[in-house]
Protein: Clustered mitochondria protein homolog
Amino acid sequence: MSAPETNDAVQAESREITLKIQLPKCLSESQEVLEVPSTTSETLADLKQVLLLLPATKNLTNYSVLLRGVNITEQFDEISPYSEILETLGLEGEVTELHLVIKEVAYNLAGVFEQITRFREVIGLHYIDKISQDFGVSSGVTKFNDLGLTDLKVPEPKEEQEPKEEEEQKENSAESEEKAEESKISEEDLQKIVETTKTITEHDSSISKFAEFNSLRDQLKIPVKSLTVSQWSPVPAFRKTKGDLLYLTLQTLESETFNITCSYSGFFVNQSSTANFNADMKVNEKGKFSKSYLLYNLVDSLSPSFSKTIKENEITLSTSTEHPETYLLPNNSFLASPWLVNADKVKIHPDLSRFQLPVLNNGVDGSEIIKEWNEDIQAIRELPNSNIQERILKEKLIHKTLADFTKFASETAINIIKGNLTPMNPNEEPDKQIYLKNGIFYTSGATTVDLFDTTGGAEASRYASSKDLASIKVLNRVDASGIYSLVTCIVDFMGKRVVCQAPVPGIFNQTSETEVDEKVVYGLSSDNSSILRDESFTEPLKQVAETFHLKPHTVELSEEIKSDGELVVSKDTKGVRGSDGRKYIMDLYRTSPRDIEFIEAHYDSAKVDSYPHGEALIRHEAVAEYWKREISTYIKEENAKLEKEGKSDEEKAQIVLPTDKAVFNPDAFSGINEKKEDQDEVRVLSKFIKDTLIEEFLTEFPSQVAPFDGKHLSESLHKQGINLRYLGYLAEQALIKRDQVVKEEEKTIQQNIELAEQRQKEADEAAKVEQESKDKEESKDDSNEESKDESKESSTEPEQTKGTFQPIIANYTTLHRLATQEMIARAVKHLLRQLSVGVPEFLFPSFVAHFHNCLLGSNITTTPEVVIDETVKSFIDENALEWVKLTSEGVFFLIEKEVYSRFRYTLPKEWNQKLIHPVQLMREIAIKFGIQWKSQDYVFTKEEFDQVKDSLAVETQVIETAKSKKNKKKSASASVATTKVTPRSSTFVADDIVNFLPLVKDSGYKSSLIDEIFQSARAHIYQGDKETGASLLNELINIQEQLYGIVHPETAKLFSMISQVYADIGLEYQAAVLARKAIILAERTTGFDSYDTISAYMNSGFYESSNLELVNSLKLYKQAINVWSTVYGRDHPTLVTTLTNLAESLTRVKLYPSAAKLFEEALGLSIKTNGPVSQLTGSIYYSLALLLLNSGKFKESLNFFSIAQDIFTKVLGPDDFLSRQSSKYSGSIAKYLEFLEAQEKQKKQLAKQAKKAPVQAPKAPESKKKTKNGKKSAIPDPEIASKSVEDILKFIEGDQPKKAKKSKK
Structure:
C-alpha cells in the first residue's frame, strides 16, 4: 500500500460524531447525559470499553443500549460499527450526534458473576489475581520510577522565520546552543550533574543491589479484607423462586462481616450468619436496610474505609509515577520475570476468593473453560479485510485469541510436566504420551521421533517442532486465503518440552474400530507408505510455496513410494481436510531446504561426535535474502535490456517478477532420482550462508554496536539469516579477523614511524632553507603576512582526518567472547535437559544447584556435596540420583563434548578459568533454562568464599527422633523438628533457587499493517510533509495499542522507532516523552536487563540531552551503563563511546572536572579494550588534552597532546590532520610554558635588582624579538599572562582551523 493510499485509508470511511449517553437511574437520579467524542468506524465493543473507563460508569456491567428506542445491543453484534447501525436503522446521512440511552437490566447468575469480576477489577484485586497467576516471581518489574527524573518541560512554540533569518541563525548555531545550555542549567542542577557523574565512574558490582525493585503494586492497599462466595451457596431450590442467584460473604476493613444476597434486582445484606441461614433482607428496628443495584455502591455504604482506601490508592498511583505503563496489566503478552529476585520482599495478599476465580470466570456451568480454539481463530481469519478498519478489527481479534490460547495452553502444559494430568495413552513411554484438554492437543517434542529414525531421532524431532512453529508465524503474518494452519505454541519447562496445538476438526474421529482412517490427503501419508496429492489443495498451497520460495517438484523415496505429479510444498507438509470443510496444513518444519553443506560436513550418525541431527535447515531470512539479491540482479538486467531497446520508464516499472527465479526444492537430498539442478540450487543456497552472509556479518561487525549479551547476538545473527550452529565458526573467524587487524596495525605503525622519521629529516632541511629565505625577507611587514595567511586559512575547508575511530579489535574480541559464552550456555541448557530425565520435581532445585557448583564453583570445591533430606529419600528411585555423582571435571568434559557436537568448536585448554565470566554465564543459563535465583552476592573464588560463607549459612528444618522422658518404663520415641544452621560448603544451595519459569514460544507475529502505516508516515516526512507524517504516527500509536495493548514488547519497539522519527523532524519533546514510555514497556515485557531495555535507556538519554535536560540524561545513561556492566562487564566497547559522548556534553556546559573524570574512565577502558596505541585511545587523549587546555591546566594538557601526537603519528601517519594538529598544540603550549618560565625568572631577577638599586619601572620586552640567528622568537607578549583563559587559548590556537572533520565511514 503506497503512502498516499495508506493516509487516505486511515482517515476514510470514518467521520467524527458525538455520543450523548444518558445514564441510568442507578448511577444518576437526574439521568445525567455524558458527551463522548467518537467516530462512525467505532463499534459497540469500543463503547463498552469507554464505559468501563469513565468514572461514572466504570462499575456498570449489566445494561442495554438504546438508540431511538431500539435495543442495539440485542439487534447488533459487538463488532458492528456505528456506520452499519445507522445504515440499518435508516439514519444514514450527515449524522453528527448519537443519543444513546443506557438502561439497567435484571441480573441473572452470569450477570452476577460479571458484576463480581468487575468489582474485583475496580478495587484492585485483579492486580493480586495477576500476581497469583504469574508463572514467575516479581514479573513485570521496572526500575524507571527509582531514577528520580524530573518532568519534561513543554517547549515554547517557535516563531516562523524568513529563509534569510534561518541562514543567519545557522551560521552561529553551535555557539548559541552552547550559551543556551549554560544559561538554562541552574546551580542546583550543576551540582546534581557533578554528583551523578561521580556515581557513573564508581560502579558497584554487587548483583544483589542490581536486583532491587520497587514494585508499585506492593504499595497499594486492598479496600476490603475479603469478598467470597458464601458457604450458603449455591442457592437452595426454595429460594430460587424468591429471585436469589448467589450468596456472598464480605469482611470489611473495620473487621465487620456481612452476608450478601445477589438477586435479579441487585445486592442486599441478608440475615444469615456463620451458623444460621436466612437470605431475607436485613432490616433494623428503624426500618433501614442496605441494598444497591451495584455491588460497589453496596460495599461503599457498609464500609467507611472502602472509598477512603480507594482514594489513597489513586493518590499513590498519581504521585508515584506519571506513567501508568508502570502498573498497567498486559492484555496480549506475558510480563518478563527477572532472573534475580528478592523473594523476601515479595508481598502476598490474603484472599479467600482467589481459589474461587475459576468458578467466576468459567461460566455458570463451567463450560466456558472449554473453547473451540481452532474454530475461533479460523472464523476470525475469514473476516473481511478490504479496508483499514476491517484489518484493524481482524488483527486485534487474532492477536487477542492467540494470546489467550498461549496463556491457557502454557498453564496446562506446566500441569502436564508436573504430572497433574492423565494422558490419553498412559501405557506409552512418557515422551510419547499425548493429551487432549479443553480443545488443545498436547504432545512432547519427541512424539514424532519415528519420522526421524535416520536423521537424529529425538533431537531431530525436537528441532522440527521449533521449525514448524517458525513457519506458522510467517504464515500468520501473510494471511493466506483458502488454506489454514494450526494455532500452536511450545512450552519448555524444567527440561521438558510440550507442543500445544488446536487440532484439525474431526482428526480424532474414526469410522471403523479396526482400521485407522487416513486423514492426510496431500503429502506423505500417516504411515509413510505413500505420497498423496489432492488437486484441490494445489492452488491454495501455491500461496504457501510463494511465501517460502519453494519450487514445484516430484518426490521419490523408493520404487513404491513416489508422487504421481509435482508437489508445490515439501512431502512432509501434510494437507488435511477438516470436518468443517476447511483445508489445513500440518508439519510445516520443512518450508526451507536443508543446509546440505553443513550436514555433509558434520552429520554422521555413526560417529560419536557427530552433529546431533541431520535436519539442519536454512533459515527463512537467508532464503529471503538470497531471493532479494537474485531478483534485484534480474531487475537490473531487465532494465539494461529495456534501455538498449529505448523503452520508457513506465515500461521499466512494469517488469513482471518471475515465479521460477530463486525458488528451491525443500525435499532436495532426502529421496532418490532427484534432479541435479534442484540439488545444485540448494547447495548454492547452503554455501551462501557461510561464504556471503557470515562473511558480510564479520566484515560489517567492527562498524556496528557490539551485542550486549547472548540473546542480542543470537537475534542479530537470526536477522541476517545465520543459524546458531555457526557460532563456533564465528568464534574462530572473530579471532582470525582480530589477529589480521592487529598484524595490519603493527605493519601500519611501523610504516608510519619510518615515514615520521623521513618527514622529520625533510622538515629539518626545509627549516634551513626557510631560515635562509627569511633572512633575505626581514624587511617585509609581518602583520600584513599574518592577515594574508588568516584570510587564506579561513577560505579553505576544514581538513579531514582519515581515522575511522572504530573499535575493530574490541568488537572482534567481544564477538569471540559472546559467541563462546553463548555456546557454553546453550550446551549447559541441553545438558540440564538430558541429565534431568527422571529427576523428581522436589529435587530439581538440588540438581540445578549442584550442576552450577560443578561449573561455576570449581574454585571452591571440585566435588560439591549434595544434601538430600532423609524424609524424601524413600520417594526417590536410585536411577534418579545419578546426577549426584557429577564433579567439576565431569561437567567440564560434558560441556566440551556438547559444544563440539552442536557448534563444531573445540574449547581451548583451561577455558573454565580463562573464558568464563561467572555472573554473566550464570545469567545466560538462567534465562535459557528458566531459573530465578535468590538475590545475593554469589562468590566464585576461594578467598571471597572464606570471607562470606558464615554470613551465607543455610537454615534448614530437620526432623529428628527423640526418646520421650515422660514414661521411663516404656521406650517411646517422637519426631521433633529443629532448625539446623549449616555452613555453606559450596557457592550454590537448593534454597538459592526461588522458582523455575516456563519458556514459551508462541505463534504471535508482527502486524504488516503497522509496518505499512509506519513506512507511509516516514515517506510523507521525507517528502517534506511533516505534518501529515506526524499525524499518521499519532494514529499509528492508537492502532498499535488497539492491536497489541499498551503493555507489549512490540509496542515498546514501535515507541522507540517513532521517538527516533520525532527526533529527526525536530519534535524533541515528543521524542523524549515516547522514549520514556519505551523504557518502561521494554523493562516490563523484555526484562529489566535486556538489550532492548539498554537501548531504550540510551536513546532516552540522548533525547533528554536534546531537550537540555542534562541531569535526566545522565541518570538514564548511568542506568544503562550499570545494567550492561552487569550483563556484559565493564569492558564493553560501546561503554567507551558512551562515556566519551557524556564527557563532551559536560564540556559544553563547562563542567570540566566532571568531564575529565568521564574522559579518564573512558581512557582506561579504551586502553584495555582497544589497546594503548589505537585511533580511539588517541582521540580520547586528544579530547582530554583539549579539556585540560580549556581548564587552564597547560602542563597536563601538553602531556596528553604529546601522547595523542605520538599515537596519531603511529596509527594515522605524520601527515594526518590530527597528527599535525596535536603537534601544533604541543608546540604552542610548550612555547607558552617556556615564556611563563622565562617571565618567572625575569621577575626574580628584577626582584634581586630592586633590593640593590632604586626601584625603577621595568621595561617591557619587545613582543617580536629576534634570536641570534635572526629568527623571530615565539615568546608572546608578557601581558598575555594576565589575561583570561579564553584569550590564552586564542593565542595558543593561533590561526589554526577550528576542528577536523572525521572521514566518513
The CA atoms of residues 598 and 686 lie 8 Å apart. The mean pLDDT is 86.
